[in-house]
Amino acid sequence: MHYYSIRMHASSETRHVSGAERIVSSNEVDQTVIEMVRRAFGKKTLPSMVSITIDDLGAEELRSLTALDITALTTRSVEDGRRAAVHVLGRAGVSPEAAWKAVDLLGRGPAPGGQNMRGAMIIDAETGKRLEPDAYRGVRASRFDWSPEAEMQIRCLLHEKGLGHFRTKEALALATKIAHGPAVTAELCWSDDPDYSAGYAASFRTGYVRISHLKEPGNDHGGRAIFIDRRTVDLELLVSYLQTQPVLIEKPGRWLAAMDSGEFIKGNTEHV
Ligand code: WAQ
Ligand code: MG
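A: This is the predicted complex of the input protein with magnesium ion.
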């Protein structure tokens, strides 16, 4: 099968409006482009520029992955949500110092001057030291998608569990690619969208743990932190994996549980 990477980027004057990213076979290219144009023009802010890039992935080897398993936590407060996130990160091997530092940075805007980044921070899972080459932009993961079958399965599963928002499906795909990266310990994310307070902590070991509240509504800070094992990381290799390795998710993960975050922490601690 021949695959293409399709990327859309819409901006108004100098501001980013929306973006999208797909990996599709040749017979899905036209339909995908139509969907992306619709998305670019479906926002409150009309774009002044939309670019769509279609790259032949040619003979590049596509890595096939199974999506992370899913746990959905509801929380009574942002504070509880962040505590649950740090707990999950701890189970994946991130130190409390590094985890709380990331929480603090995402809460304030991780780029210098308190801005949001377009990409992710890379953080030493032990010390919390930031290692991304560009602290303004961060590292953007690219070239990942669901196969049509897996997309249908995960869409049905998430819909059935009341998580039908497109952001969840997309974040799960991105988190799956990131979790399989070389020397990646875990990831923490919440949106910069002021209307979207949910986020997640994820890792190969813990799966995708969605947390209903990681920030207050109206807050427009957010971002992503990728925690790595400093002893084994080859930063160049990791960045190259995130940016260029095509990943197709061909199987959905399992649904593990939906529960209150306090209960989750208690249950987890009892098992240790
Ligand atoms: N690679 C690396 N970092 C990225 C990427 C990418 N491709 N896309 C976004 N980011 C960073 C960037 O700093 C953004 O400001 C931040 O993440 C948030 O991006 O299960 O929608 O697209 O419902 O706003 C969480 C889903 C949604 C929780 C996250 O992120 C759920 C979301 P957004
Ligand atoms: Mg956003």
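The longest strand covers residues 15-25. The pocket of pimeloyl-AMP (ligand 1) is lined by residues 116-120, 138, 140-141, 165, 167-168, 171, 174, 189, 191-193, 198-200, 210, 222-224 (CB under 6 Å).
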